[in-house]
Design goal:
Largest sheet: 13 strands, mixed
Number of helices: 2
Structural class: mainly beta
Helix content: under 10%
Number of domains: 2
CATH topology of the largest domain: Immunoglobulin-like
Order of helices and strands: EEHEEEEEEEEEEEEEEHEEEEEE
Radius of gyration: 22 Å
Number of strands: 22
Distance between the termini: 32 Å
Length: about 350
Amino acid sequence: MRLIININGFLKKSLCFISLFSLYLPLSICAQDVTNRIIPKTYSANYTQEPIEIDGLELEKSWKNAQFSDLFIDIQGVKKPKYNTRVKMLWDKNYIYFLATMEEPHVWGTLKQKDTIVYYNNDFEIFIDPDGDAHNYYEFEFNTLNTLWDLFITKPYRDGALVLNGWDANGIKSAVHIDGTLNNPNDIDKSWSVEIAIPLKVFQTSYYQIIELKNKFWRVNFSRVHWDFQLENNRYSRKKNAAGKFESEYNWVWSPQGVIAMHQPETWGYVYFGNGDSSDTKEFVIPKDEHIKWLLFDLHRGLLDKTITPKNIGATKLVLKQKITPIYQSHETGYNIWVKSPFTGNQIIINESGQIIIK
């Protein structure tokens, strides 16, 4: 869980290009195609009816039938990581299952206390926003010692997050398998893997809520934090530079963020929950209204970092070749920006705290 370092790299610096010959044209007629962006990854998670033993392995038939994700990429979406990382998912009526495998020639870990800052070790992280509104989302981190840090986060840091570090994912199960030896610098390891089962009840927003996943999609992303190491008395630790400062970590992710910032739920991937094994799980296509949400988040971030002003909001944009004209409305406690979708007729709103609302 890292703070946002730079959000400007993902933003377009202006809402439209205006030539010297069109300086006096109103912004509303200058249409910008906003579909030229990093498109989030998608994954179809198979439904399983067989019991899954949480042992860090993939021995069950359901795991063998599940497809691996694309290989992880650098968080900014450009550089190829040193070591490969892939993840699989399954689900049933009670759990969502994850299995991540990570190439690693030196498997080490030191942190054993639950809810410590796990990413100070090499770790694997899961981020989940079930309703896709960019608020009230979940983070789970695991290191090679199977130490868990679970958090509930009310909204992204840019919008004034409240992080509930004392929140617990009751009933979560996890196991680590190491192809090699842990904390032994005298040999070369192959990899480590972590298998996780998160109860669906963890994501309940009310006591009697029943979570139905079939034919639904959630916003999800995965991150692998990797550190260069040094040996002190034959023990692993994070590498320091000549000035005695820790060197920066590597952030390798499934769906690239475009910036060094995991806490942008709008740029996470899409996981679709199918109702069968890999032979009959259909390919998931991102709904068209999601593209409108991406536009609204661009506008919201632009207002936050002052690269745009409210008067620029009404400039016409192109989303999937459809003209979109956002409406800006201020009120006593902030603002709303909304669009009526030409695809579904839904009114899609983003408010001053960066939350998506559908009417």
